[in-house]
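Q: Give me a protein?
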Amino acid sequence: MKSKTRAIAKAVLPPLGYMLARFFWLTSRKSFHIEGVITQEQCVAVCWHGELLMSPQAYRYFHKKQRSFAIISRHFDGEMIARVLTFFAIGSLRGSSSRGARQVLLEAFRTLKNGSDLLVTPDGPRGPRYKVSDGALALALKANVPLVAINYRPSSYWQLNSWDKFIIPKPFCKITFYLQSLSLEGMSLNEAREYLQKRMLEHAIA
């Protein structure tokens, strides 16, 4: 019974999730605050796990056609996220810090070496919330690829009672997106972690 329920969920929930994400995007008034220069060159895009509903769309607003992959957990909710991202032409590399970490990091590095963009939630898939893990940083440092940090703040929203306090903008609200082009050149892993966490928290919702 559980497998049948999950099969139905896999078929129904991702298209529904995509349609809802597009509804909130299309009905909102959007403004973009950009720090640095967002080019069409390869990047590692990062956002907090609780901001996954709108951040991939903000990424695609600026990088419309780039070949892109996201690191997504192997859990069932990760499967749902991965299937939604396919509607935005974003592929998935399946693994996390707890399951398949080494393999997915190797795949991610090969993906960057092949010229694709990489999307990462540095506090995912299970938290702690707003705590940057080393995976995205190590990849960006090793591949020498710039980071683009994405945050957003809706004028009104719902916030789920989940570990990531998932944010859902209310229809017809104003959403302010913050994109920061960041260089980690010359930093150690510890310095890069502190720097990225500080910058991403500047526009995060408590």
About this structure: The chain has six helices and nine strands.
